[in-house]
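Before drawing any conclusions, I looked closely at one protein, both as residues and as discrete backbone shape codes, quoted below without any editing:
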Amino acid sequence: MVIKKGKIRYIILGLLFFATSINYIDRQVIGILKPYIASDLGWSEFDYGLIVTIFQIAYALGLLISGALLDKFGTRIGYTIAIAIWSIAGMFHAAVRTVAGFACARFFLGLGESANFPAAIKTVAEWFPQRERAYATGWFNSGSTIGAIVAPMIVTGITLTMGWRWAFIITGSLGFIWIGLWLIFFYSPKQHPKLLKEEFDYIHQDEHSKEISENIRWISLFRYKQTYALCTTRFISDWVWWFFLFWSPDFLHKVYGIEIKEAVLPLIVIYLLASFGGIAGGWISSELIRRGFSVDTSRKRAVLICAITVLPVMFVPQIKSLWGSVILIALACSGHQGWAANMFTIISDIYPKKAVASMTGLTGFTAAIGGALSASFVGLILDATGSYFFIFAVASIVYLINWIIIRIFIPEIKPIIVEHSHNKILY
């Protein structure tokens, strides 16, 4: 059977979207079920905080090692193992009874889930030409917001009909459905049994030199100023996304007095626009490349547009209208997701394919550290001032600061020269 041109890579893109959606569903289950579990098992707030912290630590540590392992063993095997680990860990939540048991389950969930984005970015780099990568990244990354929307509906429905333990079992089992589809459809382009030569040549149209076969040493990434620039941008910006996810319900409740049920529709609007923004942000740079602009110009213009989209969020604390605030927060979330689609893609623009997952993991680690620190930062500001004004003001400008960092420290987005022990190879 011959698969038509383009169909294989879009099937693979669909699987990346599916995996990212499952990733967010599985990580959100415990937060949605917290009231049920705390009541059933007698958790304190400290107990729950400890369990969440264990997940964050494991996720950050996993990002440091998962990228290197994916670059070494490949995405077909590496991604399969990662989702198997986090799916088993997700289902294991249903079997434990103690805080220590939940902490153990969350630790392995965090380790497994940490591989998702490095694996997905590496897969896009392998299967899409440069001009399509940002658009493809925007599509699979939108799975995060879809997962955020779907999770409460799935988990609530299962819990009310079957109990909270079944919510962990059923959502955890989704990963094994994905694994079956992944092993059926995914191979590297060089090994895929149904990939036409025409399609192979289309995917590799940007490669003008022989691809190196040896692995890139993880530590060698620190030789390049681009590494520090990209890690810095993730460190100072990713916390904004988590702020919107975790604090928006609290903000809407305190400012507008809406309860949890009333917040569902505003949150769906925020997540849907965020999903659209991720796709649109990737489309902008991909479309500019198609129109003849350089990769450097296209990526930087797209990042600037996304940064400008976030700026109006600074006015949210002054707006008296609920839906006015919701729309500005939604625009900011869409700007972040568009920014993320391009920042993920810039990694594959600069680094060789053998280092893409490692670099994605490294930037993800710095993002996780920034996110962990921001939780304390936000809490301290709110305790000291009782106002969200300063937080929204900072959130509104960090993406513009990132654009400036990229302009200064990455004068041109282009492949780096990777040094090896006996030679230099230009990518």
Q: What stands out?
A: The first helix runs from residue 7 to 41. The longest strand covers residues 417-419. Residues 208-214, 421-427 have pLDDT under 50 and may be disordered.
